[in-house]
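Researcher: Please predict.
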Amino acid sequence: MNFASLVGHVPGVSTDSTVDRLTADDDLVVRMDVILGLPVVNQTLWRFPGTVDVDAIASLADKLRRGRLSRLVATHRGPGRAYWRYTPDAGHFSVQAEPVAVGEEEQWGRAQADADLDIENGPAWRLVVARTADDASVLVSLVISHVIADGGTGAVAVLEAVHGPGLHARHRSGPGVERRRRRRPALDRGEDRDPDGARE
C-alpha cells in the first residue's frame, strides 16, 4: 500500500496536482483480483457480549468512509498504472435483520468474508452488524479488499475512526519516539556498536 499518500488525506480535497497512482505492489493485487479472479480480503470480527448501540457502529462506518478506506481504483486509457479515486462510496454499512443462530457464529463470519467487493465501483469494504438469536451477543464483521488496504492499514483506519485522525501522529511523537530520535546521531557516527562492529 502507498501508506504515505494516505496520511493526512482529506477526501474530496486535492492538495497536489500529482496523480496518486497505485504502487507496483498495489497493481499486482489488482491483477490478481481482476484478471486472475483471485481476490484477497482482510477480515476483522468482533463479538460483543450483551447489546451494542447500533448508532455507534453506524458512526464508525461513517468515519471509515471519510478516512483511509475512502478510495477506489480508477482505470484509464493508455499505458501506466491505475490511480486512486477518493470517495465515501468506497464502503457499505448494513444491519442484518435476521439473527445468527447460536453455534453458527463462525459460519456467519465466513459468509461475510465471501461477500462481493468491487474495487472500482464500490463497495470495496463492508461493515456488517448482527445479533445472535439468544440476544446474548452482537457480531460485527469488517471485510476489506486487500487492494484498498492491507491488514495494518485497515487496523489503523479503525483506530483513527474510533480515536480521531491524529492518532498516527500522536503515536509517532510519543516519548519513546523522541528517545529513539536522540539516539540516531550516535548510531550514524558508528557509536553504540559491539566489538564485532554490529549495531545494537
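Model: Residues 1-17, 169-200 have pLDDT under 50 and may be disordered.
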